[in-house]
Structure to design on (332 residues):
């Protein structure tokens, strides 16, 4: 008998990812993280990224799904990157959109800093927002307490005060994650003027956004301008966590602005989670490359290599932590 919880309304298993897909995808992020680990602190981010890409591609090829890369690392003529439009998987399972970032934080990896991740996000075919027109997006992410309270159109000071009230805190107790970039100098000043503390991110605002959406995190909010692809990946996770994400496209120059308008984008529109990824059937999988607040990084412990991963599914609202020990001799 079919499981009524997972049976699609149409009766076709090929319209929606199967519940087992997440545990298959985590094998690919584990492999990417393990292969990248020897390059931690070695100063060569391209070598780390190349090793992670090769490992992720090899493992994705064994997964029972037909994935199309909507958010990848490059175009087709830049192989062996996981390029936009590439089909991954064995082609025999559900049809999905897939976003991949074999290392979110290549510079962090090269420098031996915290919070580098290997990431995959998956949703039903045709459901992910196309990020190609505008590379940057202004974003705000919070947990469930921010829903109906926080709005990207408000000032950061108002958002901090309103979120503090909703969480039963004082503004001084709020911690806001923001990428440490010159473009955020004024934003950082306004956050501190509102009484809140900052958590400046060297790189990797996917981890920052997810930490803001988690109920048990020390981060209350993640704000600022980062990549549009990272915003879509984060939205897949936020849907499973029950949090809030909003974004506005931010063209970097007049040429990109004209291209976005020609593509039909309303640059004043506030994009919510359902605009960034439609439907309620998303997966998010991340394995730590280096240690961070979200997950631990790859660790060598005698004969084994230990990884920690976060596996989220929006349909079931399931949050899993997967700690795995891998025989080192299989990877050397």
């Amino acid at each position: 008998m079919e499981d009524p919880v997972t049976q699609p309304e149409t009766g076709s298993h090929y319209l929606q990812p199967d519940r087992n897909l997440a545990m298959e995808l985590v094998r690919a992020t584990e492999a990417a993280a393990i292969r990248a680990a020897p390059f931690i602190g070695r100063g060569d981010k391209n070598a780390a990224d190349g090793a992670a890409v090769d490992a992720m591609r090899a493992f994705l090829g064994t997964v029972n799904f037909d994935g199309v890369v909507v958010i990848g690392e490059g175009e087709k003529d830049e192989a062996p990157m996981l390029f936009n439009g590439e089909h991954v998987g064995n082609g025999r399972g559900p049809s999905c959109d897939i976003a991949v970032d074999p290392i979110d934080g290549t510079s962090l990896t090269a420098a031996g800093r915290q919070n580098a991740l290997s990431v995959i996000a998956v949703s039903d075919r045709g459901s992910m927002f196309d990020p190609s027109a505008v590379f940057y997006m202004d974003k705000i992410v919070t947990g469930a307490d921010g829903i109906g309270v926080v709005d990207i159109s408000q000032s950061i000071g108002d958002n901090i005060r309103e979120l503090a009230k909703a969480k039963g805190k004082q503004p001084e107790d709020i911690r806001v994650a923001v990428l440490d970039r010159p473009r955020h100098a004024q934003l950082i000043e306004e956050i501190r003027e509102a009484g809140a503390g900052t958590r400046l991110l060297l790189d990797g605002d996917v981890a920052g956004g997810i930490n803001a959406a988690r109920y048990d995190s020390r981060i209350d909010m993640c704000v600022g301008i980062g990549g549009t692809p990272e915003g879509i990946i984060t939205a897949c996770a936020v849907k499973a966590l029950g949090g809030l994400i909003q974004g506005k496209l931010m063209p970097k120059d007049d040429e990109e602005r004209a291209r976005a308008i020609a593509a039909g984008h309303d640059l004043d529109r506030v994009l919510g989670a359902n605009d960034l990824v439609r439907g309620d059937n998303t997966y998010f999988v991340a394995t730590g490359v280096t240690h961070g607040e979200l997950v631990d990084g790859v660790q060598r412990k005698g004969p084994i290599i230990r990884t920690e991963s976060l596996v989220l599914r929006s349909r079931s609202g399931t949050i899993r932590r997967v700690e795995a020990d891998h025989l080192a001799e299989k990877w050397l």
